[in-house]
Predict the 3D structure of the following.
Amino acid sequence: MCLEKRHQSGVSLALDGDYEDSFLLTWEQLSEQHYRTYADIQEATEQGAYGIAILVVREAAGKTVLERAAKGGGFDFWIGDEEDAELPFQGLTRLEVSGILEGDDSKIQARTKQKLSQVGRSDGRTPALIAIVEFSRPLARLEQK
């Protein structure tokens, strides 16, 4: 939804930060039901950022989402290697995702800094990865902590 309002299917998503790449994003045209389901643009931005981040993390970092994190830890998902999914918390990374509907470099940098601080609540033995998705360009930033 956030992409379709600004772009046509086939747009290139730039990836920057600790990983650099680009990805071709394609999608089917949305129906009226999609627009009604995601009429709350803030929620659509959050959910869209989750989707883009999960795909980018899989392609760029070779990690997949294994579990949704409980609220209060300062991050959204546990990610890791699929083959290690049966060993709880072995080799896992925390993933925090944030979406920005439209923002310049300073807004993306400020959000990255905010999210790096936020995951600090759960710092310890596991690394963290911050994913910021900005839809107007589109751009994704992945930063390791």
